[in-house]
Write a structure and sequence with these properties.
This protein is mainly alpha-helical. 52% of the residues lie in helices and 0% in strands. It has helices at 3-12, 16-28, 42-45, 50-64, 73-76.
Length: 89
């Protein structure tokens, strides 16, 4: 399955953390593309990478949250400071 399909499914299902992570690695860091296989996302979900990814995603979300041009704006605009991304330890 392509990352694009998982991304669209995450948005429809309101899986905020997954949609945010995909948006971050595809649009912000550009280390993957929407045409890549979803298996390429595994390394970003490994338990050893979770604290760093959580921190990076929270920083990314804080930067993008109020940008109406951001593809995930509608999903996150109503959230306050707390959302589904775990805080890094």
């Amino acid at each position: 399955m392509q990352i694009q399909l998982l991304y669209e499914s995450a948005i429809r299902g309101k899986h905020k953390s997954l949609a945010l992570m995909i948006d971050y690695v595809v649009n912000e860091k550009q280390v993957l593309t929407f045409k890549d296989h979803v298996g390429n996302l595994r390394r970003y979900m490994l338990p050893k990478n979770q604290p760093k990814m959580s921190r990076l995603l929270n920083e990314y979300l804080a930067e993008k949250r109020n940008n109406p041009d951001w593809p995930l704006y509608e999903m996150f605009k109503k959230d306050g400071a707390e959302d589904e991304v775990k805080k890094s330890q």
